[in-house]
Amino acid sequence: MSKTILVVDDSGSFRTVVKLALQKAGYGVVEACDGKDAIGKLGGQKVNLIVCDVNMPNMDGLSFLRHVKDSPAHRFTPVIMLTTESQEAKKAEGKAAGARAWITKPFQPSQLVDAVNRLCV
Fold first, then answer.
1. What percent of the chain has pLDDT over 70?
2. How many CB atoms lie within 10 A of CB 1?
3. Which among 59, 77, 43, 44 has a CA at the least distance from the CA of 8?
4. Which of 2, 26, 93, 105 has the highest local Cβ count within 10 Å?
5. Rounded to whole angstroms, what are the CA distances from 83 to 15, 55, 61, 80?
6. Which residues carry the post-translational modification 4-aspartylphosphate, per the record (predicted)?
């Protein structure tokens, strides 16, 4: 059975790019448009890994990440932050909140797939 990745980004076209790269690598993909939407999607199914943007409306990626890590059901789910944010302070905040990897946009799909393959065991 293929592993399922939750992709959280407020850009529909960006989610599509990520989804296509992950599906091509053999993963199932669930999409969410922001942190609040993602929390709703997490309630209904098992996900093996989360790819999440930082800057989103309703609930930003770092708030969502903290929520995930506070949830017993998802505490150990690896999270990759995929964002335009490249400041060290933001990266440190993400790492402190529990992000396992930080990829800066624009990115190579192969770079994301490599990170997913490493973390999605």
1. 98
2. 4
3. 59
4. 93
5. 12, 8, 9, 10
6. 53
> Phi-psi bin for 5: left (phi > 0), alpha (psi -120 to 50), beta?
beta
Count Cβ atoms within 10 A of the Cβ of residue 12 and give its class: 0-12 exposed, 13-18 middle, 19 or more buried: exposed
pLDDT classification of 45: cutoffs 50, 70, 90: confident
Tell me, what's the pLDDT at 36? 97
Band (pLDDT 50/70/90 cuts) for residue 1 is low
For the chain, the domains span: 4-119
What is the topology classification, in CATH, of domain 4-119? Rossmann fold (3.40.50)
58: pLDDT strictly greater than 70: yes
What's the number of CA atoms in the CB half-sphere (13 Å) around residue 106? 1
Report the distance separating Cα 95 and Cα 81, nearest Å: 9
For residue 121, is pLDDT > 80? Answer: no
Q: Which residues pair with 83 in a beta bridge?
A: 104
